[in-house]
Design brief:
The chain is of the alpha+beta class. The chain is about 55% helix and about 15% strand. It has 24 helices and 22 strands. It is globular, with a radius of gyration of 36 Å. It starts with a helix and ends in a 12-residue tail after the last helix.
């Protein structure tokens, strides 16, 4: 008897699936998006890998064998290189060196990488752009980066600083720039000079080469037969090992594969981070799918009750509903995979039209595709499990009643207790991390472990939000819906519709809250860490150039005025530092004006205001402020040459002070302490942006420093502040994370649209009754649209309420010196956009609702 019953129950579900495919399309939409996102990431990895492998140019293709020093690390000398060249089957062998040298002839420190390259032929890694490639000693070709940053051209001269053979002192070697080249291997990432190996060995004074690249006769015939070429390669490897016994010999293909893997690994680091955040989008999809399955099953309560009335057991019914969900999940997964594959094939040709050249994978990654489809089916089973168990326990008497409302049972005592338990656990973990926050200068703090516990606390808090969501909806709704009730009947009905089904409103709003929480937290952490990055730049690179005393304790008093007379320089600042004693410990006191740091980058105060610095006041760095336990308004005492000086704290910094300063006072106070009037450091910025501006500024400094007694200088920042690589990396990473987290918002919006579509079907009689009572179609349209917008409002409020406290904790754990900065404008824009998007998601269901005929109010329920 069990088989016929199973066939009857399953057949009923299949019939329902075929009769109402729209409901199941809505249910599977969130799962389809999840499958599309996951396999889209797989396709992105495939495209990046294919592009890197196709465009990567490291070891030239003509290189058949690569020889490097063995375990002893001894360079390969010129005599060994000659033996390699005499080895049978070797057509060409070139030695390579990677070194570098400081440059002389400037008041600022400059450095040039040096690399050996033949310049021409199949083994060359550079391409000549201008001039000629060095053909003799005393000449160098430089890459475009060196030409741009150091103002070089064919015919220019460079003076290299090389150590003396005995290691005592340096010697100056002048070389001529013969040409400008572009590297195919390094993409001119650093200023580099090139010359043939023998000339560079002589120039650097080294004993040999760090690597030898070999081209062989068998390279061209390698494709003719793998066994023959493999045998020839083995014989050549053995001959080279006899010529260079201690060396390591590898094939060119092996080296190129390793270089390609390393290049791909660098690109995959970002994708691995993206994969971590994809789990969030998948989790959001499961929440939306669970909610929509629950609504669908509640809508079919009469059908399920009839099956129970004719003998279907709850177990059989639940199994049939789970099987139904699995089918929906598998179909959604297959559709999502195919859509992602199609988009992946379209991306490279579209990218080539816009500029970047990308390459698509040659075949469908079948294993990943199957795993994605199977995983989507598993997600569907997980999503349908709870609703199916609830629906299978429906009473047979429900067959005699009207359709259910779809709301289901209100949150019970067990759910509330679970939510409170999760909230207590989250609060306990958060308080533990707050109580153990690192202090300034604490190097023993395990930030990774602390961040892990913060994430765990946030996860518990979100679980609490899911459990307590139905109880939070009505209080929050009553607070935000006051203005809506004054907009007329449509607004009041929208509030009643959302508040009348708190479980449904919570299930949708919680997913929206997840997206808002993550995006808002990311924006807040980015704003705070960016502020800290600007602070760090202000401390580490306050100016383009800093000139300090070489042999004396102070600089020439006229130096700042002389530098200021050059139009190539701006923001010339002279200041003094002096040593004092604070609580028996040494301290550096400076009269640097903290408002004179580089334009666009400013220091920030943790307490007080930097503008309050006046006579008898002091600004204290974060470390000393913490150790002394002082803040703005407190008193500190410094001892200078045995005399105590009492000062009032005007402000405390968020971190260290610039140029190693720990206490900052006015110039009058430093003079009163007895400091010499001559400056100990002079800083200046280039008046023009870009490399040329810095070159002109360097020349102006060189012209001013006519003798070593006037001072010395060095470049403090090769890139202008605000454009440093760290900031770029931070912005790029944050942008990537925000884009991925936007997928969570996309899933949430799909959930809003799905819920609105299902509830419109469910509430047709309600809409018909409203139309019969005189409510216009436009008013019904506004009511449903506003109700969907309320899901965005609820989610936004709950998400920000959860995200901002955790953002503060994450910033404090990640960098205790970082100021907490809330990007109110960006958060308001995200909130507004989300409300508009969720309202737009309900436009189509609202249109269907507005077309409901008043006669539906008297029609028989389904």
């Amino acid at each position: 008897m069990s088989t016929p019953w199973r066939a009857t129950v399953l057949g009923s579900q299949v019939a329902e699936l075929l009769r109402r495919p729209g409901r199941f399309a809505a249910t599977g939409l969130s799962l389809l998006i999840a499958a599309f996102v996951v396999f889209g990431t797989v396709m992105a990895q495939q495209i990046i890998t294919a592009t890197v492998v196709e465009k990567f140019r490291g070891t030239p293709e003509a290189v058949s064998v690569v020889v490097t020093p063995g375990d002893d690390g001894e360079d390969i000398g010129e005599d060994r290189l000659r033996e390699i060249r005499r080895t049978p089957s070797v057509t060409e062998a070139v030695g390579r060196i990677d070194g570098g040298s400081p440059l002389d002839g400037s008041a600022v420190e400059r450095y040039l990488e040096l690399s050996a390259d033949p310049g021409t032929g199949a083994l060359a890694e550079v391409r000549l752009l201008d001039g000629t490639y060095p053909a003799g000693p005393g000449r160098l070709a430089v890459n475009t980066r060196a030409a741009r940053e150091y103002g070089l051209a064919p015919g220019s001269s460079l003076t290299l600083l090389r150590p003396e053979p005995d290691g005592d002192g340096t010697r100056r070697v002048t070389v001529e720039v013969s040409g400008i080249v572009r590297s195919t291997a390094t993409n001119d990432a650093r200023p580099t000079g090139y010359a043939p190996g023998p000339h560079l060995v002589e120039l650097l004074g080294v004993t040999g080469y760090s690597r030898v690249d070999i081209r062989t006769e068998t390279a061209s015939s390698a494709s003719s037969g793998s066994s023959a070429s493999g045998s020839a390669s083995a014989e050549l490897t053995e001959r080279i090992r006899q010529a260079v016994p201690a060396a390591r010999v590898r094939s060119g293909d092996e080296v190129r594969d390793q270089e390609a893997r390393e290049a791909v690994a660098e690109a995959k680091d970002v994708l691995e981070l993206v994969t971590v955040f994809l789990a969030v989008a998948v989790g959001a999809a499961v929440l939306v799918a669970t909610s929509t399955f629950r609504i669908v099953f509640a809508r079919r309560v009469r059908q399920l009750a009839l099956l129970r009335a004719i003998g279907a057991s709850p177990r059989r019914l639940a199994a049939a509903l789970v099987a139904e969900g699995a089918v929906v999940g598998l179909l959604a997964g297959a559709t999502g995979v195919l859509a992602a594959w199609g988009c992946g094939q379209l991306v490279p040709p579209l990218a080539r039209r816009l500029g970047p050249e990308l390459f698509a994978p040659s075949h469908l990654p079948l294993t990943e595709a199957v795993l994605t489809v199977a995983g989507t089916g598993l997600l569907a089973v997980l999503a349908v499990l709870s609703p199916s168990l609830t629906a299978s326990r429906v009473s047979p008497l429900e067959a005699l009643r009207g359709a259910a409302s779809g709301e289901g049972t209100a949150s019970g005592t067990g759910r509330t207790r679970l939510g409170l338990l999760c909230a207590a656990g989250a609060a306990l973990l958060a308080w533990q991390q707050y109580d153990g926050l690192p202090r300034p200068g604490d190097t023993e703090y395990d930030r990774f472990a602390a961040l892990t516990l913060v994430v765990l606390s946030g996860g518990l808090a979100f679980l609490a939000l899911i459990a307590l969501g139905p109880r939070l909806v009505r209080p929050v709704l009553s607070a935000v819906a006051v203005p809506l009730r004054r907009t007329g009947a449509a607004g009041r009905l929208a509030v009643a519709g959302a508040g009348g089904a708190p479980g449904r409103a919570a299930s949708v709003s919680v997913v929206v809250a997840l997206g808002v929480c993550l995006v808002g937290s990311t924006l807040t952490c980015l704003a705070s860490l960016s502020a800290y990055e600007r602070y760090r730049q202000a401390v580490e690179s306050p100016a383009d150039f800093s000139l300090y005393a070489r042999d004396s304790e102070s600089l020439d008093r006229s130096l700042a005025a002389d530098l200021d007379s050059h139009p190539e320089l701006t923001d010339v600042t002279a200041f003094r530092t002096a040593e004092a004693v604070e609580s028996t410990r040494g301290a550096t006191v400076s009269d640097l004006d903290l408002d004179t740091v580089r334009s666009g980058v400013s220091l920030t105060a943790r307490t007080g205001s930097l503008g309050d610095l006046e006579r008898a006041h002091v600004v204290v760095d974060a470390d000393h402020a913490h150790r002394l336990g002082v803040r703005a308004g407190d008193r500190v005492t410094l001892e200078f040459e045995g005399r105590p000086v009492h000062l009032t704290v005007a402000a405390t910094l968020s971190g260290a002070g610039p140029y190693g300063g720990e206490f900052f006072v006015t110039a009058a106070d430093l003079t009163r302490m007895g400091a010499d009037a001559a400056p100990t450091m002079v800083t200046a910025n280039a008046s023009e942006d870009g490399a040329q501006g810095r070159i002109h500024a360097q020349r102006a400094i060189t012209d001013t420093l006519t003798g070593p007694e006037r001072g010395d200088g060095r470049v403090m920042a090769e890139e202008p502040a605000g454009q440093a690589g760290g900031s770029d990396d931070l912005r790029t990473m944050a942008t990537t994370v925000i884009m991925v987290l936007g997928l969570t918002v996309l899933v949430a919006v799909a959930g809003v649209a799905t819920t609105a579509s299902l509830t419109v079907v469910e509430r047709r009689r309600e809409f018909g009754l409203l139309r019969a009572l005189g409510l216009s179609g436009a008013a019904v349209h506004r009511m449903v649209t506003v109700e969907c917008a309320l899901y965005g409002v609820l989610g936004g409020i709950l998400g920000l309420a959860l995200g901002l406290p955790y953002s503060w904790l994450v910033v404090r754990v990640a960098e205790t010196s970082a100021p907490f900065s809330v990007p109110a404008g960006e958060l308001a824009a995200v909130f507004t956009a989300l409300v508009l998007v969720t309202a737009a998601a309900g436009m189509v269901p609202a249109l269907r609702a507005s077309r409901t005929s008043p006669t539906v109010a008297v029609a028989r329920s389904e």
